[in-house]
């Protein structure tokens, strides 16, 4: 079962069209820890069901998704809740 991690910031490429890194806070039994991952690391963790990432908007969790282009390139979804971080 994947662990949940709150995304509090995102870094985009110079053109602003692609997320290249995300970071935030993960709550655990022992408290809160800060984390930072490249987009590739985050995608791998989502696909391996290790972590799930969310943005909190109005006390609601909005989960991040992995999108796949026709050529097979994968990216963190830049639509929906992630737009609020950019």
Short description:
The chain has one helix at 39-47; strands at 3-12, 19-28, 31-38, 51-57, 60-63, 66-68, 74-76. It is mainly β and 86 residues long.
How many DSSP helices?
Answer: 1
Number of strands: 7
Order of strands in the sheet with most strands: 3-2-1-4-5
How big is the Rg?
Answer: 13 Å
What does this protein structure show overall?
The protein is mainly beta and 86 residues long. The chain has one domain (3-85). Helix content is 10%, strand content 52%. The chain has one helix at residues 39-47, and strands at 3-12, 19-28, 31-38, 51-57, 60-63, 66-68, 74-76. The strands form 2 sheets. The protein has a 5-stranded mixed β-sheet, covered by helices on one side. Strands 6-7 form a two-stranded antiparallel sheet. It is globular and about 40 Å long. The model has no long low-confidence stretch (mean pLDDT 87).
Write the layout of secondary structure elements.
Layout: E1 3-12, E2 19-28, E3 31-38, H1 39-47, E4 51-57, E5 60-63, E6 66-68, E7 74-76
Properties at a glance:
mainly beta; 1 helix; about 10% helix
């Amino acid at each position: 079962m994947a662990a949940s991690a709150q995304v509090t910031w995102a870094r985009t490429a110079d053109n602003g069209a692609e997320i290249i890194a995300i970071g935030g806070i993960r709550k655990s039994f022992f408290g809160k820890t800060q984390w930072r991952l490249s987009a590739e690391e985050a995608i791998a963790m989502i696909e391996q069901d290790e972590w799930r990432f969310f943005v909190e908007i109005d006390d609601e969790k909005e989960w991040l998704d992995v999108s796949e282009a026709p050529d097979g390139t994968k990216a963190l979804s830049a639509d929906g809740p992630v737009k609020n971080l950019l």
